[in-house]
Design brief:
By secondary structure, the chain is of the alpha+beta class. It is built from eleven helices and eleven strands. The longest helix has 23 residues, at 42-64. The structure holds fe (ii) ion (FE2).
């Protein structure tokens, strides 16, 4: 069926080829065209885990203060058992969204920049930085292993199959790194089959993608794995998969590839850059968390109740 694109494989090949510069410059593994991995060096991954523990610990301290349960903080570097010990406290932080994003606040900005700095190191040591024109600062995420039906049915729930482009995310691809926790709480990646020309338009409810014919079916590609960079194109449909296990932590950022067909380069609206679509060019990306610090004026106590995002 012709749904606006002459051949649905054309869009798959076109989107896959945007990342040829990454394939040439980096050690790419598990290449599935619109989804692929790059290994992270052991030492950097250890640093990443340690920085993430500090970010969560500081968030707990900033909000709950030195309450009894935090006096005995014994979790060092890569001991993530605190994710289940303090699961209740973590998921009741005011700066955590229903999608699990642990948002930046003034009290935790130093730890955030330290975490960002490790990711900048990884972008440089994998040589990925040289295949990008732009990238975002990191989004740290904590996902519980189970959920309520109410949350699962939210219009833009990450537990529904989706592309981030449907939530108006700009850029070519998401770069995601699962950092620690329960591997059964993961991301499921799929290739859409029968893609229509509307696919890259936004939606108010991810369920509408099927009803509006953005795609006809899905073909399973892979699950997310620890200690690896995952790069998945906006064409790669995915969802958070919770299987009644324990929490998982990860981080992500959106990237623009150095290619003439980059969605980012073609997007005229980016000059208006809303917060979630703030991008840094390559020269600034190299300095994020280091010479260039991310800042915020909002404090923990000012955190809104995040209902929708
Ligand atoms: Fe997503």
């Amino acid at each position: 069926m012709n749904k606006g694109l002459n051949n649905m494989e054309d869009i798959f090949i076109k989107r896959s080829s945007i990342y040829d510069c990454i394939r040439e410059g980096c050690n790419v593994t598990n290449d599935k065209g619109i989804l692929f991995n790059i290994d992270i060096e052991e030492a950097s991954f250890v640093n990443l885990q340690a920085a993430f523990v500090e970010y969560i610990h500081k968030s707990l301290m900033a909000y709950y203060g030195k309450k009894g349960f935090l006096y005995d903080w014994r979790f060092k570097k890569n001991d993530f058992s605190f994710l289940t010990v303090y699961e209740n406290e973590i998921f009741n932080l005011p700066n955590i969204t229903p999608g699990g994003v642990l948002k930046i606040k003034k009290e935790i900005i130093h730890e955030y920049n330290a975490l960002q700095s490790v990711v900048t190191d990884i972008l440089i040591e994998t040589n990925l930085i040289n295949s990008l024109t732009h990238g975002q600062n990191i989004v740290p995420r904590l996902v519980p292993g189970s959920t309520s039906i109410k949350k699962r049915f939210r219009p833009l729930s990450t537990e529904k199959y989706h592309s981030d482009v449907w939530a108006s995310q700009k850029g070519d691809a998401v770069l995601s790194i699962p950092v620690a926790g329960d591997p059964s709480t993961t991301i499921e990646f799929c290739k859409p089959i029968g893609v229509s020309a509307d696919f890259f338009n936004s939606l108010e409810n991810y369920d509408d993608a099927f009803e509006r014919g953005y795609l006809e079916n899905l073909e399973f590609l892979d699950f997310a794995k620890f200690k690896m960079i995952h790069i998945f194109d906006q064409l790669c449909v995915h969802r958070t998969l919770k299987q009644a296990g324990n929490p998982r932590i990860s981080l992500e950022l959106c990237i623009a590839a150095d290619h003439e067909d980059s969605l980012f380069l073609k997007d005229k609206e980016l000059s208006r850059a809303m917060q979630r679509n703030r991008y840094f060019d390559k020269s600034k990306l190299k300095e994020l968390g280091k010479g260039i610090k991310i800042t915020t004026g909002e404090r923990m106590k000012d955190a809104e109740k995040y209902e929708q995002t």
